[in-house]
Design brief:
mainly beta, 5-stranded mixed β-barrel, 5-stranded mixed barrel
Length: 231
Amino acid sequence: MKSIVLAALLVSTPLSMVWAATPAAPATQASATVTGEVLETKDVPPYTYLLLKTKDGETWAAVNKADFKKGASVTIDNVVVMENFESHTLKRTFPVILFGTVGGAGQAITSPHGGAPAPVITGPIKVAKASGANAYTVAEIVAKAKQLKTKTVVLSGKVVKYNPGIMGKNWIHLQDGSGSAASNSNDILVTSAAPTQIGSVITVTGVVNTDKDFGAGYVYKVLIEDASIKP
């Protein structure tokens, strides 16, 4: 990559959030902006991938899905540089790719970890605990995370946030009414290849993991991975 990417890689700002890459890709938060001419576009919801011609050479970038015309000038601010970023949909690994905020129109871009801004369910939630020896509530999984690590659990909950198709997985936040927001014990992230929708009450079966670092400062203290879903 040219000097603009190398410069970005030298500026590091730790964060503290979470998501998934396969494998996890090192990332750097850069204060610089990148401006370039659109040479090529690939729409892979929720992203539009852009091949940009900058003053320092060509580079790929990813922003929230939008209509970009070839030849258009695009400025990306608040750049996050991802190395060895694997797109399962495109079946391609980008040695370096930029994520950030599209300038001009002020379009917010998707962080590769967090996905596109998603609706969030709020208000009282009460979902009955799943049945079976491996069944737990959200609060129980959070409290017993170390003991449950690598173990299969069953959890019933309401989908309060849903980001599909991020890094080849669907990202689901479940709540069942147990725990509290103050102690961060009322919500748990579940990753799954199966689709769902916000507001649905589902039962998931997956493996507990802890202190999962997906890069770019995105770290989950506890989550359920590779879950199957039943209505």
